[in-house]
Automatic annotation (TrEMBL):
PANTHER family xref list: EPOXYQUEUOSINE REDUCTASE
Self-association state and partner proteins as the record states: Monomer.
Family stated for the protein in its record: Belongs to the QueG family.
Species whose genome carries this gene: Zobellella aerophila
UniProt enzyme class: oxidoreductase
Cofactors that this protein relies on: [4Fe-4S] cluster; cob(II)alamin
Name of this protein: Epoxyqueuosine reductase
Amino acid sequence: MTAPDLHTLANDIKLWGTELGFDQVGICDPDLTDHEPLLADWLARGYQGEMEYMARHGMMRARPQELLPGTLRVISVRMNYMPEQAAIARVLSAPDKGYISRYALGRDYHKVLRQRLKQLSDKISQVFSELSARPFVDSAPILERPLAAKAGLGWVGKHSLLLNREQGSFFFLGELLVNLPLPVDEPVAEGCGKCVACITTCPTGAIVAPYVVDARRCISYLTIELDGPIPEEFRPLMGNRIYGCDDCQLICPWNRFADASKEPDFAARDNLHAPQLLVLFAWTEEQFLKRTEGSPIRRIGYQRWLRNIAVALGNAPASAEVAQALEQKRPQVSAMVLEHIDWALGQQRAGLTQVDRKTERLIRAVDKGMPKHAR
């Protein structure tokens, strides 16, 4: 294809992407050489915790060409996910409810974005019959945020997530590797400046330096990726967060511009939107599997689900009802979950519920600075 043909195709790709529901499309080359030392250092410090796949694939994450030989460009896309009426402050401020990271309230994003990327690939192949392409949505070892930054979709913030001046950070990313020398987009200027709100707000101190997250301390890791017991030192700090954590995003000033998602698949499910902890804790495994069908939550399994809720119940105000629910569940769970139930019972009996001042400040910030749909 000639240079004018490639320029026209690049514009068409961006148009097709928006027609498929993506909120932005950018193009970059696949060279991430500059990120290899940073990745090697992060792994050497053990910040990946039990995510052994991070170390197993090593530098492949910074070498997209090894995932698809012949890759010349990466088409990077983003799609907003914040649902209407996210009720963030209302749930975080209610210790009897379970807070689920807002990205997980609807359908599993992996399936949604991958299907759209495949459709985008099909459209490109109609113009370029020799297309070799491969879509990715958290499905392979690839550094998606540095690629998205190279493609002009935003910059990597101090919390390590991608930030966009018009849309904040409440969006998913996906990539389509292609063997086309398309014209590339220019990166945008970094916009964090001296702000360290995400670092100081993190409940567990997981952002150990600007742009560096120790996953072993991150509530998202503890509630989703960690397979075994949650270290006791972090349990009181988790509050009512039972699947993921949005604190570093919620405090970010750029998210005052975040729009609600137009994608119906990301609409919040009623049983997950502002759920009562005791209702969730009473679910049988069959009910858990049924009610999280098609949801990213299902991947953690029933035992980790109970583990997370037990911690939240331990952090809830002391009540006979909570203690009774914990006691009744003891004979039905694994040894790992039992440990967390017994910890929660100890918290309940001692009435040691702590007032989380960081959470209080965060709720005030959400009420003051976030769009109405996000509150």
